[in-house]
Known about the structure:
Elements: H1 7-21, H2 30-37, H3 50-59, H4 66-76, H5 81-92, H6 102-111, H7 115-118, H8 121-131, E1 139-140, E2 143-144, H9 149-159, H10 166-173, H11 180-191, H12 199-213, E3 218-226, E4 229-236, E5 248-250, E6 258-262, E7 267-270, E8 278-280, H13 291-301, H14 307-319, H15 327-339, E9 351-355, H16 363-366, E10 375-382, E11 386-393, E12 399-400, E13 405-406, H17 408-423, E14 426-432, H18 439-454
Amino acid sequence: MAEQTDFRRLRSLVDGVLLTLYQRYRHQDLPDLCERLGLPSPPPNDGTTKHERLAASLQNCPDGQLPHVAQAILDAAILPSIETRDLEDAVWLGRDHVEIPGRTRRELAKEFDLTDHLAYSDRFLALLGQLWDLGEDEFNIWGPHLGTLSDDIQRHVIRFPGDWSTEHLFEQLKAFEAPHPRFGRFLEGLASPTVLPDEQAQRRFVDFANHHLQPVGAQLRQDGEVDGYPQFHLLQLGRGTARRPRNLIFATLGKPDIRFTSALDNDIEIAEQEDKILVYDRPVGKDGLLWSDLLSWWQETRDADDAEEAALALYSRMESSLPRQSEGQKNLFWLYHHIYKSQLHEVPALLPEIWVHWDPKTIRERGERAQQNLRMDFLMLLPGNRRVVLEVDGMQHYTRNRGSTPDSAKYAATMAGDRDLKFRGYEVIRFGHDELRDRMQAHPLVADFFRALLGRSPDPSTSVFPG
C-alpha cells in the first residue's frame, strides 16, 4: 500500500536542504542546480539573497513534483545520513510498501539468529549504517564521538555475540517503531547478496522471515539474480478474506449429499459414507491449514496411533479422489509431496477435489443461473487467510465433443467463475495440463512455483528427480 504523501512535511524537508545548499553555490549556479533537482527556475538575481531565490523556486514547485525533487536530492547524496533518513521516510511512505506490524517485527527479532550475518560482519554493519542512526554523523576536531551506537554494536554484537539479543539490537536501532518502508528495506537488505553472499544462508533467512511474514500477508520473494546470487524483494500477498472456513469438503468421489441439521445456525451434515468424502470441520488458525493439522485430524477421527502409517493412508485416500484421466493433477499432487517430503509438517496441506460452491440441483437444471466451478482441483489455505485455488486445465475447459470442437462459451463460463472466486477473496492459479503431463519435466516448474507461492525453499535433496 501507499500512504497519502505528506506534502507539507516534504516541502519543509526540501526547504531545509535548500537552506544548507545555497551557501555552496554562487548566484549564477542556481539555475543549473534547480534544473538538476527538478525545481522551477529561480527568479532573476535582482538583489535578493540566494536563499530567497531558492525559496521562491520551491514555492513555485507544485506538490506533485516534490517527490521527484526529494528523490533527486537523495540521488545526489549531498546530505548527512540523519537528514537523508528523514527525507527517505517522507518519500518512501508515499510509495507502495508493505505494512509489517510491531508484533510481527518483535516476534521475528526474538527468534532471529544472527550467526549467518555475523560471518560477514563488515557487510552487516554497513547495512545498519545505511538504514539506521548509528550515531556517527557528528564529528569534533579530534574525530568521531566515542560511545556511538556503532561502537556498542561492534562490541556487544560482533566481538562478543552473546552480549545482546537480537531483540535488544532491534530496540537500539529503533526498528520496532520505524516507518513500514524502512523496516521492509531492512528485511530486503538482510536477504541481499550484498550483505549475505551465501545462497544457502540467504535462503535460510528468507524461509525464517517468511514464516513470520506470511500471517500478515507479506513475503520475501526472489525476483532475479545479482552476480549469480538470488535477489529478494518484499511483496504484499493477496489480501485473503476476513472469514475463516467452517467446512472443508474435499477428496470426494462424487457429488456430496448435503443437508442442514440446523438451518438457523447454518450447521450441515454430509449424508455420505466416510470412504466417499472427507470433511475437515476444525478451526483454521492464522497459519492456515498445515499438513500436520490435517494429519492430526485424520489420526484422531480414525484412532490411528502410528503417525507414519496414518500419513500414508491419508495421502492414498486423497490421491484416490484424483480423476484417472488427469495425469497433470496426479503429477502436481505427487510432486508437491515429493518436493516437501522432509518438511510436510511445516507446509500447507494440498487439498484435492475441493467443493467451493454447492448446489443440490445440476447445472442443466439451473440453466443460466447455474454456478460455475463448483468443485476445484486443489485448494491451499495459507497464512493471512489466503485461499489459493489451483486448477489443471485440460481440453475439457475450452472444447466440447471430447476435444474435437473449440467452445468459446465454455471457456467464458470458466473465466466468469474465476472472477467470482476472486471477488470472494480467492486466488485462482491455472496450469495447462501439458505442462504437467511428464512428471520429470514438470519437476523444476512445480518446485519453482511452490517456492514462490510459499516463500519456502524445498529440501535440496529433492532437487534431484528420483530414478
